[in-house]
Specification:
This protein is mainly beta. The chain has 3 domains: 61 residues, SRCR-like domain (Mac-2 Binding Protein, Roll), CATH 3.10.250; 101 residues, Roll (Mac-2 Binding Protein); 101 residues, Mac-2 Binding Protein. Helix content is 7%, strand content 27%. It has 2 helices and 14 strands; from the N terminus they run E-E-E-E-E-H-E-E-E-E-E-E-H-E-E-E. Strands 3, 4, 5, 6, 7 and 8 form a 6-stranded mixed β-sheet that branches. Strand 4 and strand 5 form a beta hairpin. The longest helix has 10 residues. The protein is globular and about 60 Å long.
Length: 270
């Protein structure tokens, strides 16, 4: 957030981007996540450490883009980009799956399933930064696609563009929080649940990491956060724990199950 690069996708250790030189200024950094700068977080004092440069820390950020709006998740929502010190939306003129594909890849959210138009995730506020976006799918970021210029449009926020990516996942249910709840995934135009057959901490670990919620503390079964409705999309899920998304794990096939919603699976993340 401090360098206007969107949200954090990875917090890398062990000099992932190579070892630095010179001073190691900070150690034992403990942020709440709400601080305005890194040096505003708790730490052991400037220059006070017992580290080597082989322990240099790194980050992977989403870029100046985010998904927002009612019903949004980490991988589905209204598309907003950061420009000129403020967040703004994207007009849906010519908005299609090619454009959504770039957004989904930029956010490390898999491939694009839908490119919703007409403020599907609610109308934004403030600037409408992009219009007539035309991506070839190969661009590394949305602002690298052709467009009519920042702020150049005759659109209203009722035309705000959105995306739904293949790794769209959410935690919901009675008593759920941002990092605990019934697991639901988006497939074939609807949200559905996961059956708890074989559900364990390895499976929960993948979910927790996928939604940037730390590690798995528990893998509750039997509709711990209440029974869902609609489809039960996954059953017999078997993750090694290293997969980047739940749908990459072994399972019995989308919609193939012998379950009831009383068996809906859940996670509690750290």
């Amino acid at each position: 957030r401090q360098i206007n690069c969107g949200t954090a996708l990875g917090a890398l250790h062990s000099a992932h981007f190579g070892a630095g030189t010179g001073q190691i200024w900070l150690d034992e950094v403990t942020c709440l996540g709400s601080e305005s700068s890194l040096i505003g977080c708790q730490h052991s004092g400037f220059g006070s450490n017992r580290c080597e440069h082989g322990q240099d820390a790194g980050v992977i950020c989403s870029g100046p883009i985010r998904l927002a709006g009612p019903g949004s998740t980490l991988c589905s929502g209204r598309v907003e980009v950061y420009h000129n010190n403020s967040w703004g939306t994207v007009c849906d003129s010519n908005w299609d799956l090619n454009d959504a594909e770039v957004v989904c890849r930029q956010l490390n959210c898999g491939s694009a399933l839908q490119a919703p138009q007409s403020a599907y995730f609610g109308a934004g506020t403030g600037q409408i930064w992009l219009n007539n976006v035309t991506c070839s799918r190969s661009e590394s970021s949305l602002i690298g696609c052709q467009h009519s210029g920042f702020g150049s449009n005759n659109c209203g926020h009722f035309e705000d563009a959105g995306v739904i990516c293949s790794d769209a996942i959410r935690l919901v249910g009675s008593g759920s929080t941002q990092c605990s709840g019934r697991v639901e995934i988006y497939y074939n135009n609807s949200w559905g649940t996961v059956c708890d057959d074989g559900w364990d901490l390895n499976d929960a670990e993948v979910v927790c990491r996928q939604i940037n919620c730390g590690s798995a503390l528990q893998a509750p079964r039997s509709a711990h956060f209440g029974a869902g409705t609609g489809q039960i999309w996954l059953d017999d899920v078997s993750c090694s724990g290293s997969e980047s998304s739940l749908t990459e794990c072994q399972h019995s096939g989308f919609g193939s199950n012998r379950c009831e919603h009383g068996q809906d699976a859940a996670v509690i993340c750290s």
